[in-house]
Structures are given as structure tokens and as C-alpha cells.
Specification:
Structural class: alpha+beta
Strand content: 15-25%
Number of domains: 1
Helix content: 10-25%
Distance between the termini: 47 Å
Order of helices and strands: EEH
Number of strands: 2
Number of helices: 1
Largest sheet: 2 strands, antiparallel
Radius of gyration: 13 Å
Shape: globular
Strand order of the largest sheet: 1-2
């Protein structure tokens, strides 16, 4: 079964139907560094509440999550 990923803005979290995605609630979402974006994943058909969003595949979401905005700064001052 194919898996899809959708990046959402923080103000869209309230519209997530957690019964249609693999995350269980808002507390299980992964956020970018400044807490302005998150993402959900689902299997099978795209949930209707995500119908107008860009759907990413596994390779695309992995590339996105490698961007600096999703990773804490690795330079720790001494």
C-alpha cells in the first residue's frame, strides 16, 4: 500500500482528522525548528481534508526533512 506525506502549516493542525492519518494526535506530530510546519502521513487513498495539498512520496519527504528548517543546529557553542 502506498504511503503519502503532506506538509501542513501550524494553523492547519486543527483540521487534521487523526482517524485518517498515521499520527494519533497533535502531540505526536513532528515540527520544524520554528514550529510553523508539521506533516502527516497516510496509507492508501488521500484523505479528503488533504485533497488540495501537495502529496509527497517517501523520497520527497526525506529530502524535505533533510533541509535546515527541520533539523536543529548542529553547531553547539562551547
Amino acid at each position: 500500500m502506498s504511503r503519502g506525506y503532506v506538509i501542513l502549516n501550524a494553523n492547519e493542525v486543527g483540521s487534521i482528522d487523526f482517524s485518517k492519518v498515521l499520527e494519533t494526535n497533535a502531540d505526536t506530530l513532528r515540527w520544524n525548528n520554528d514550529n510553523t510546519k508539521t506533516f502527516v502521513k497516510y496509507e492508501g487513498s488521500t484523505p479528503s481534508f488533504l485533497g488540495d495539498k501537495t502529496i509527497l512520496n517517501s523520497s520527497q519527504i526525506l529530502a524535505e526533512l533533510e533541509e535546515d528548517e527541520w533539523n536543529p543546529d548542529s553547531d553547539i557553542p562551547e
